[in-house]
Structures are given as C-alpha cells and as structure tokens.
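Why should sequence recovery work at all? Because a backbone constrains its sequence more than one might expect. Tight turns favour small or flexible residues, buried strands favour hydrophobic ones, and helices have their own preferences. The token representation captures these environments compactly. In the example below, the structure is given first.
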C-alpha cells in the first residue's frame, strides 16, 4: 500500500523580493498562489515571474500580531509538525444569542480576531483563531448533514437535531500577511453561523465582490489554552525565552506563595483569637428596681452603685457593659472606671433599648402581618494596661422600663484589639492582590 512520506523539515521552495517594497519573501507551500507581504501589506502574485502586485492592503503596523505567534514559526500538535503560513485579520459584525429570566433574543455585537493558517508536514491544514478571549483550533470538516441557517435554527451536522443558533453575521478582511491559495482583498467577506454542541460548529459562506456565495465550508472548533500553545510552539527561540521567563517567575512566585501562605495562617489565628473575649477576670451585676411613676424618673443620671475593686495585669483589656429589661423599654447606662490614684481610666456609656411589635405590609397585591424586633443591649471597648493596678468605678443610670433593669459589667484580659486584626487582614489582603497581579502579569507576558 502506498503511503505519504512526511517531510523531515519545512523547506523553502522559492524566495523573491516584494515588487512593492523590496522586502524578502519566502514560500513554503507549493500550492500558494498569492502572498501578503508582511513588510508593506501588498498582495503579490507568487506564481508569475514578475510577481505582480495584485492589491494593496492596510499597513502592517496597524495590525500587529496579538501575541507571540509569527509567520514561519513551527509547532507540534499531536506529534505532527506544523508551520505558520499566514495570518488574516477579520472584523465581525454579528448577532449573539442571550437568555435570562426576562426572556431571550439577539444582541448586536462587533469583534476582531486573527486567523492563523498552519500547514503540516503532510500538507494538511488547520486554522488557529486568536482573539481577546484566547485561542481555538478550527478544523475543516465534512458534515453528515450539511445545512444552513433557517429561522435562527440549524440542524446538527452529525445528529440532524435542531440547534439554537448562538451567533450569526458577517466577517470582513482588514489585513492579510503570508501565503494563501486564493486571492485576498481588503473588504472580502464571509457570512457565518455558529451553534454549540459540546464544542462550536460553524458554517461559513465566502462571498464574491457582488455578495454572491461562491464557496461554503464547515468547521469544528476546539479550545486550546495558552500554556498548551506555548508548549506546542516550544523550540522557537522567541517562545523558549518566554518559557524560561515563565519558569523563573513561577519559581519566584513560589517564594511569595509560601510567604503569604504563612501570613494567611497568622491571619486565621488572629481571626480565631479575635473572636474570643479572653479570660474573664471580673464581673458584677446590678438590678434597677422598676420605676413606679414615670414622673419620678429624673433626666439627670443617678448613681446606682459602686463597682468593687478588681486587679488588672499589663496587657489588652476588654470592657463589656450590657443591660436587659422588659420589651419596649430603654435605659441610659454610663460607667466611669478609675485607677488606684482616683484618676479616670475609661468611660463607657450607651442608650440601651429593646423594642418589638407587629407591622402590616402590602406589596405587589399581597399583604399580611409581620413581627419585628430591634435592640441594642451591649457596649464594649478595648484598652491597654501598661502596669498592674487596681481599678474601681461608678455606674450611673436613667431608666425608662416597664420592669426591673439588670446591668452587668464584665472585664476580660488577653483579648486581641480589633484594629490589630484589621491591620493583619489588610496586610494579608494586599499580599493576595499581589499574588493575583503577579499571575496576571505572567499571563500577559506570555
């Protein structure tokens, strides 16, 4: 049985200078009829001896490659070697399908992408599509059920089942460089329809200058990651430099990953300890008898009782002042803490209240009764004690309750100041952002 003998390498079959600018042009594909000059944008007849300039496209400087891929580069996919022959820049105006809880429809969209053509050592071809979202490999297929768009539906090329069209519209050539088997002009158009069935399937209709269909092709698209593409193009000096840079940056990032990982552990420990109140070293409870006559309640704070002395060691101290009373009542409670010299060390006060009720509501044709509750019954504060000392204090109150009011004062030692935790959280957050930005930077450089 006869077999195809692959080339061991890609050999230049012809070299000449661009008739328009004098730049050196090399041909790889024996079937190439036209070549777009990468230096000036002229499309030259590759088969004639005069290499006549057929047309002139836009300046190459306006349409640089989006990433590392260049004409002439070699790559290996599934063990088969390929070489980049050409690049066509397209601009699309199309409709894109959308669907949400409010309905569905098609929105107007525009997009730009590069289409690289790669030839294998077996003289087979595929397209590599590159845009802002990444890369896909586009391969020409022969469908079992070839068909075109009809009423925004299309039949699956293999199962013949009805599929929803995801995108449809026109793409127009804005620039071309490299080799082509057909003549390319700026403004050449194709109509396309795309549907999804696990992957993207596309039918393209190539139009002539009168808008008449002259060729129909079917394609299957498969996504490929940037890392996979870099690996495939390994061996090209430009790509090898990028791979080395990526390896070095990954090594550098491992150090920072460990550093901020350790910081993350510290963050969790601080969070754990900040949720705790420390060790309770003192507590005292006071009961305020019910006011029999609201007219007897003074608006001037009255001394309720004295806080008995307690000792505090150096460190962080947490003070908690709380109150409890019957529903729909309130009370102002103030605390004045003094050290052994009689100097005021801390003041803590708040308006405590407990309210609840039932509220009627009506909305969108529906209505009903809903219970509600609102309260403020605890106040806390932190401060640092520099040396061992004995503290005492006074509690003041203005009650307005339907029953007894109970006030409790509690002291904890060993609590973590919340601001320290916030500082640690900010540091860890900044570290995380740095890691994310470092990853994005690596992606962009590649």
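From this structural description, the recovered sequence reads:
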């Amino acid at each position: 049985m006869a077999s195809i003998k692959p080339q061991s390498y890609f050999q230049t079959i012809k070299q000449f200078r661009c008739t328009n600018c004098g730049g050196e042009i090399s041909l790889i594909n024996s079937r190439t009829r036209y070549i777009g000059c990468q230096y000036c944008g002229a499309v030259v007849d590759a088969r004639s001896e005069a290499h006549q300039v057929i047309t002139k496209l836009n300046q190459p400087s306006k349409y640089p490659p989006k990433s590392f891929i260049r004409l002439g580069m070699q790559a290996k996919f599934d063990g088969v070697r390929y070489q980049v022959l050409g690049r066509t820049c397209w601009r699309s105006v199309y409709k894109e399908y959308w669907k949400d809880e409010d309905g569905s429809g098609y929105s107007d969209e525009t997009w730009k992408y590069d289409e690289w053509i790669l030839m294998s050592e077996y003289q087979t071809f595929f397209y590599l599509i590159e845009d802002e979202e990444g890369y896909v490999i586009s391969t020409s297929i022969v469908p079992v059920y070839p068909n075109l768009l009809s009423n925004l539906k299309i039949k699956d090329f293999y199962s013949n089942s009805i599929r929803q069209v995801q995108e449809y519209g026109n793409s127009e050539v804005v620039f071309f460089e490299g080799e082509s088997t057909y003549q390319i002009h700026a403004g050449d158009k194709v109509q396309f329809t795309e549907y999804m069935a696990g992957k993207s399937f596309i039918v393209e209709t190539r139009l002539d200058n009168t808008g008449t269909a002259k060729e129909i092709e079917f394609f299957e698209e498969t996504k490929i990651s940037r890392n996979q593409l870099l690996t495939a193009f390994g061996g090209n000096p430009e790509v090898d430099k990028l791979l080395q840079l990526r390896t070095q940056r990954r090594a550098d990032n491992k150090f920072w990953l460990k550093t901020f990982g350790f910081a993350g552990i510290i963050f969790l420990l601080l969070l754990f300890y900040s949720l705790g109140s420390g060790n309770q070293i003192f507590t005292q409870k006071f009961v305020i008898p019910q006011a029999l006559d609201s007219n007897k309640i003074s608006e001037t704070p009255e001394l309720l009782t004295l806080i008995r002395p307690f000792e505090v060691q150096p460190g962080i101290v947490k003070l908690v002042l709380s109150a409890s009373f019957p529903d729909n009542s309130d009370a102002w409670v103030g605390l004045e803490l003094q050290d052994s010299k009689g100097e005021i060390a801390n003041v803590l006060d708040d308006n405590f209240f407990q309210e609840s009720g039932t509220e009627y509501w009506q909305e969108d044709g529906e209505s009903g009764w809903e219970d509600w509750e609102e309260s403020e019954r605890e106040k806390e504060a932190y401060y640092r004690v520099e040396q061992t000392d004995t503290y005492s204090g006074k509690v003041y109150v203005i009650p307005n309750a339907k029953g007894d009011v109970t006030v409790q004062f509690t002291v904890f030692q060993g609590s973590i100041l919340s601001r320290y935790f916030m500082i640690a959280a900010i540091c860890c957050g900044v570290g995380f952002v740095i890691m994310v930005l470092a990853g994005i930077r690596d992606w962009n450089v590649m």
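A few observations help interpret the result. Residues 14-234 form one domain.
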